[in-house]
Amino acid sequence: MGYRLGVDVGGTFTDVLLVDERTGVSHRAKTASTPADQSEGVLNGIRKVCRDAGIEMHEVAHVLHGTTVATNAILQGRGARVGLVTTEGFRQVLQIGRSFVPGGLAGWIIWPKPEPLARLEHTVEIPGRIAADGTVVAPLDEERARAELRRLGGAGIEALTVSLINSYANDAHERRVAELAAEELPGVPVSLSSHVLPEMREYERTVTTVANGYVQPEVSRYVGNLDRSLSGSGIDAPLSVLRSDGGLTKAAKAAEDPVSLLLSGPAGGVTGAVWFAEQAGFPDFLTFDMGGTSTDVALVLDGRPRIGRETTVGDLTVRATSVDVRTVGAGGGSIAHVPELTRALRVGPQSAGADPGPAAYGSGGTEPTVTDANVVLGYLPTRLAGGEISLDAEAARKAMRSIADAMGLPSVEAAAAGVIDIVNENMLGALRLISVRQGYDPRDFALMSFGGAGPLHANALGRLTGSWPVIVPPSPGVLCAYGDATTCPRDESARTMVRRFSTLDDDELRTALAELADAAAGRLEAEGVPRASQTATYQIDLRYHGQGFEIPVEVDRATVDGDLLAGLGAAFDAEHERLFSFLLDNEREVINLRVTVSGPRPEVAWRVLPEGSGDPSAALVRETEVWMDGATTSARIYDRSRLLSGDVVAGPAVVVEMDSTTLVLAGHAATVHPSGSLLIRPMNEEG
Fold this sequence. Notes:
By secondary structure, the protein is an alpha+beta fold. The chain is built from 18 helices and 37 strands. Among the domains are: 146 residues, no CATH class; 133 residues, no CATH class; 109 residues, Dna Ligase, domain 1 (2-Layer Sandwich). The longest helix is centred in the first third of the chain and has 31 residues. It starts with a strand and ends in a 5-residue tail after the last strand. Pfam families: Hydant_A_C, Hydant_A_N, Hydantoinase_A. Its EC number is 3.5.2.14.
């Protein structure tokens, strides 16, 4: 037992959380992110949190890190120059894609098609063919392969990707190309589609592999630099990185398979939310993570986040397992503006970011943001991040005046209230995507809010969705770092098995799942996780024969050991009806098998707050004036660190802490749960 260090790097802030595994006592630090070199901001935060906790750097036993390096490389176009090797006749696989144009009919006219991550001039084709059943139709032309690899080397490629047709069924040709590449292109990292995504559908397999190669050098450099910087600072603890599915992987494995990290940052928040929701006793909830640049939302059912098979970053969609997170460009730094053409108020997706930031930060920003609106309305305290950031209320009012003037509003408060209403509606749309659009009623779920800006808007989002209670966990501004520190190691194996139910039996399917589980378990064991402490979860992609898409279905251990095909069919029918409201008489068909093996969750003690009397007056800081429901009203400001279990904070009220601020609206009350979470409900609602 020792100290676990969770680190989450966002677009605006770097959050660091130090947790004592024995007591559950935590220490937080929030420092400005350093986009030029993220490791610099990480080390600043680690030094600060260790100093505040009164421990030496060498006392840290585990470093767990959620990173946006891979995500930013995609969004900012800073990846490697990628070379792509394809089977003869498939050179334009990325250019053809799926012939999908987003948006309505006008999308065909105005949509600028994004440039593939591997340019056509850096794509080569090699004779040789493998059939869908894995048999060799034509041998690999090794002489041609060497010539094409040398040509790519002359073009200055920085990463090589190999995606040959049907390699998921037989990877012999891809492995041979990798051997030839080691001779012809020494030092150039190679990504094989049969390793990155051993599943059918050549376009998805190719674009995912190319994305892996595109971000690999950047991620490898960052992880290596951070690892060396930690060692140089006296931390000998191993570095683990959070995967997009919420599990941990060793730094070396992360550098090898960086496409699995594209949603590393948001996944940490969902994982941390599960940790605190479990303590508060709410297994079904929506997550609402609002930071400085964007808002991420997800759905958790029965204590498990919904896992998707696609990861989307900007215009790029790849086939990689990840927490089903939806993102909207709405954050504390989102800029409000009134277009000349429509004269209608808009908020985001443009953001002031960390530099120059909102006008209230006093760092040179002049455009009105969501943060400025919260300052004008009186919802934010004068100092943020434990006193590191002071707010300039007059600068915020000046920025918001431009919105009031453009819309002819009588006051800056009215303009600020409009900004808050618009950004709340934007975030409501994202919450509906992961609930209503997926067949779930948000009124059946609680709403877990976190992120630096989330608790300011959470009560209003609860009112819009009907999701109660609204849960604000302890340290909401660094919850992603909490997720990093409290999750478990994880690995995954997958394969394609296109078989109708009539041609398959339970034993054959069970054997295939066991082989995948054994492979993932072996890799996890190599990372130091004993097999005896591992658990496996199973997911099978199914469809009705004749359909052009499949649906992932979770299968529990009891079903695997029992009447497997019957249980699988019933689960698929239930999921198909939930999504589409109908069933077909067609025979069911297995497409892909997937097994995820996880290590044990760390034994971090839960903190329990002392029992209070229900009266929060001991935590009262002062009274203030806020603008709420169209008028100025009196509100009380409370220090969250002084609240006790059972205390009830009635709105209108503002609850402040080092890393975030919670707003309790009039007609609502926040009850302090023994775990430290605030549970906000309408006053007329029982329980």
